[in-house]
Amino acid sequence: xxxxxxxxxxxxxxxxxxxxxxxxxxxxxxxxxxxxxxxxxxxxxxxxxxxxxxxxxxxxxxxxxxxxxxxxxxxxxxxxxxxxxxxxxxxxxxxxxxxxxxxxxxxx
Length: 108
What we know:
With 108 residues, the chain is mainly alpha-helical. It contains 4 helices and no strands. The longest helix is centred in the first third of the chain and has 12 residues, at 7-18.
């Protein structure tokens, strides 16, 4: 499990609450501070973990990890773009913002 205070853990805890469950019902073997450490622990047989599918794409393709869908648990998170309006954003940042504007992400 990610450490207390991480965005993923917060989102997972909220998702559990919506499903009428709590984190205290789970047997947590480890709390680690990075996705890489969690993936390594799972690959070494410590147990299962909750991670973003985006964080494990490489391992899914390689077959070293397997993703399971859990019914009634949806860990959507709000993401925000922040910028200092007093400064002109560098070209890569402007291109990224333009990409976001032209490819809106919708909730599923």
